[in-house]
């Protein structure tokens, strides 16, 4: 094996090739190929219903939970096919964590929300190490100072923005390699949104990050690469600065200038 740090900056963490997704007869994703690396936050943008969330969910097999959903094509994580029968899906979802639109902490204490994953994955051999994982995850999620004196309070009693950072801490606690965020700020006020955006900046480089957003200003602020989706296809993928200032495709230009969507 090559040194991890040397490979991650040059090699794709995840690659999708000709991915198609069907809901029953209906095709929602029509052959998408993309490479995701560790160095860049990737934003998925596009009008409602274009397939951003559907494609995002293929990256950690969340679509397995939708009985009528079917995926074709190849998706690899460090070169390994995540749809192969030998892939442990529970393990995959720890490696490729997900943060949802609506903060969804468990109805448990702040501590237990973060400790849950490390416990089920056996990551901490004793209480002291578990305490350390919980603290480090909350620090990294920018929440530690606000909750360190009330770790036994319920996670659901936190503000919406704090709950979302708790969900990010919960994802971080199992030491993921990729974090998928599906409109993580859509239920938050502007101050809580700014904190999550700041956090995304801080997490960049340590994890590969993909964020679905409706908010083009947000995509421009947090990402270095942007993929524009339209009607189930990925129309354009490139540097965020190019996509927003000098897109190659007319459909991208129309969308970013507000002509539709
Ligand atoms: N569980 C499902 N069952 C059937 N069809 C679905 C399901 N989820 C999504 N779809 C359909 O797949 C297409 C893509 O939806 P998806 O939610 O991925 O788009 P999106 O770009 O994320 O939209 P939005 O920005 O509104 O969240 C849509 O036509 C949608 O109706």
UniProtKB/TrEMBL annotation:
The lineage's top-level taxon is: Bacteria
ABC transporter domain span: 14-256
Transmembrane portions of the chain: none
What SUPFAM superfamilies has UniProt attached to this entry?
A: P-loop containing nucleoside triphosphate hydrolases (SSF52540)
As for subcellular location, the record says: Cell inner membrane
Pfam families named in the record: ABC_tran
Note the PROSITE patterns from the entry.
Answer: ABC_TRANSPORTER_1, ABC_TRANSPORTER_2
Q: Which UniProt keywords apply?
A: ATP-binding, Cell membrane, Membrane, Nucleotide-binding, Phosphate transport, Translocase, Transport
Q: What is its main location?
A: membrane
List the SMART domains hit by this protein, alphabetically: AAA (SM00382)
Record-linked InterPro entries: AAA+_ATPase (IPR003593), ABC_transporter-like_ATP-bd (IPR003439), ABC_transporter-like_CS (IPR017871), P-loop_NTPase (IPR027417), PstB-like (IPR005670)
Q: Which GO terms describe its biological process?
A: phosphate ion transmembrane transport
A GO-annotated cellular component: plasma membrane
Single GO MF annotation: ATP binding
- Per UniProt, what is the membrane topology? Peripheral membrane protein
What is known about what this protein does? Part of the ABC transporter complex PstSACB involved in phosphate import. Responsible for energy coupling to the transport system.
NCBIfam families linked to this entry: 3a0107s01c2
PANTHER family attached to this UniProt entry: ABC TRANSPORTER I FAMILY MEMBER 17
Which protein is depicted? Phosphate ABC transporter ATP-binding protein (PhoT family)
Organism for this UniProt entry: Blastomonas natatoria
């Amino acid at each position: 094996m090559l040194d991890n740090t040397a490979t991650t900056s040059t090699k794709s963490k995840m690659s999708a090739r000709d991915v198609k997704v069907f809901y029953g007869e209906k095709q929602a994703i029509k052959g998408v190929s993309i490479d995701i690396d560790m160095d860049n936050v990737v934003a998925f943008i596009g009008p409602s219903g274009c397939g951003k969330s559907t494609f995002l969910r293929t990256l950690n097999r969340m679509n397995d939970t939708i009985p009528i959903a079917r995926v074709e094509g190849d998706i690899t994580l460090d070169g390994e096919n995540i749809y192969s029968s030998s892939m442990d899906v529970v393990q995959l979802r720890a490696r490729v964590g997900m943060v949802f639109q609506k903060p969804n902490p468990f109805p448990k204490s702040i501590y237990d929300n973060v400790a849950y994953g490390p416990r089920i994955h056996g990551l901490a051999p004793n209480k002291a190490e578990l305490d350390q994982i919980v603290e480090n995850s909350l620090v990294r999620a920018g929440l530690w100072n606000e909750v360190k004196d009330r770790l036994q309070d319920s996670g659901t009693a936190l503000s919406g923005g704090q709950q979302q950072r708790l969900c990010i801490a919960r994802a971080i606690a199992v030491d993921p390699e990729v974090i998928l965020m599906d409109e993580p700020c859509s239920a938050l006020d502007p101050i809580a949104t700014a904190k999550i955006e700041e956090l995304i900046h801080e997490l960049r480089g340590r994890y590969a990050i993909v964020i679905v957003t409706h908010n083009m200003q947000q995509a421009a602020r947090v990402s270095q690469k942007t993929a524009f989706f339209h009607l189930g296809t990925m129309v354009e993928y490139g540097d965020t600065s190019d996509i927003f200032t000098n897109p190659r495709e007319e459909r991208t230009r129309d969308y970013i200038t507000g002509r539709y969507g």
